[in-house]
Amino acid sequence: MSYSPLVTIIIPVYNGSNYLKEAIESSLAQTYHNIEVIVVNDGSKDDGATESIAKSFGDKIKYFYKENGGVASALNVGIKESKGEYLSWLSHDDMYLSHKIKYQLDFLGDKFLPRQILYGDFQIFDVPTGKSSINLTPSVSPGNYLCEALYLLFGGAIHGCTLLLPKACFDEVGLFNEDLRTVQDYDLWFKLLKARYEFRHIQGPLIVTRHHEGQGTLSMADIHRQEVERLYIWAFDEFFESFKCFSLEQVASFVMLLKNKNLTEAPFHIIKRWPDNQVQRDCLMSYLQDQDINKKTVFRTSVKKLVQQTLLTKLATAKNPTLEWIFRLFEKR
Hints:
This protein is of the alpha/beta class and 333 residues long. The chain has helices spanning 20-28, 49-55, 71-81, 100-108, 145-154, 168-173, 184-194, 216-219, 221-238, 240-243, 248-260, 265-273, 278-289, 295-317, 321-331, and strands spanning 7-13, 35-42, 62-66, 86-89, 95-96, 116-126, 131-135, 165-166, 198-211. The chain folds into two domains: 7-212, Spore Coat Polysaccharide Biosynthesis Protein SpsA, Chain A, CATH 3.90.550.10; 247-332, no CATH class.
């Protein structure tokens, strides 16, 4: 390819001596060579083990140390120090497949596309069992882009380390929110979607992500749950005008999605704000209260109630025997 932009890979790390070496090696082993690798030590307290590993790579990487402030603050240091036209983030306990950056740049072609964000599939390695699997992330179709993109983000389907982002996007929407400990990535993805950046999927795994007991979302499970609830409530309000254009079945799919993630405040917030009338609200509550309910049955029931409401209104204003007969017939269905 004739277009060869500099790509910065940022690796934030805290007490990461167990996996950091492999993360750095996977970054340096990229088949696309115009890269810089930045490692940001977020105040590790492991007697210098993390720092020793990072410094062992010498001038092959750029190394920065900062006081502990969380992943978002470490990422922001990396962004500020980066020189690349594109940025990619790698957790210290994950690894890039060697083709990751080249595959994404080949997809973009020979031009800079400033409003496209690329994401892909990923391989999961479960440390306790030693088993691997491939996670295929859904694509977003142009014809129903916003609804599907929101569903993707509300579902937490995108792995942040698969992304390739134009650095300029941070000038527009800002850096990662350092007040967030576990959802700083999705907070930013929602902001990028709001700013009309286009998320595009590339088929095939780009990274290997480890599942282990020391992961932040597991070690900070209570904080993570609270942050997710608040994030989804905020995101729904941010995109409320768009949600108003979605169908009842589409909104119901969001309610069920959040219910299946064992959330409570966020789905109730949607039910409280979205419906135009009590019938729609009752329908959404039916989805929320019964996970195994037949969706078509619920939807048809809601339509039936809406028709009944309309007929009752007409019956109240006009004594029409035909309308009354239709209503009684419909009531028996």
